[in-house]
From TrEMBL:
Pfam families: ThiS
Domain of life of the native organism: Archaea
Gene3D superfamilies, per database record: 3.10.20.30
PANTHER family: SULFUR CARRIER PROTEIN CYSO (PTHR38031:SF1), SULFUR CARRIER PROTEIN SLR0821-RELATED (PTHR38031)
Protein name, per record: Ubiquitin-like small modifier protein 1
Length: 93
């Protein structure tokens, strides 16, 4: 299946662009995709999954919905889904 992966801020720098089209096995989950991203992009290693769960303070959206409100890392993906990954945001003054 083909997914549209969208990256923001420092994750965009790590991926080398805002949007990446990528192929994954049918039935892949958000966790599967995030593990693959950590393996592929050095700047994401250890920043997406921590202690077997979603890293603190990052946001991952499936088609605009926060995966924590779905099935978290076990959220199943389908062909054509869009996964958006936002790093922690530091506040201003």
């Amino acid at each position: 299946m083909e997914l549209e992966l969208r990256f923001f801020a420092t994750f965009r720098e790590a991926a080398g662009g805002k949007t990446v089209e990528a192929e994954f096995d049918d039935g892949s989950t958000v966790g599967d995709v995030l593990r693959d991203l950590e393996a592929e992009y050095e700047g994401m290693t250890g920043r997406l999954i921590v202690d077997g769960g979603l890293a603190p303070q990052i946001n991952v959206l499936k088609n605009g919905r926060e995966v924590l409100h779905l099935d978290g890392l076990d959220t199943t993906l389908a062909d054509g889904d869009r996964l958006s990954v936002f790093p922690p945001v530091a506040g201003g003054s």
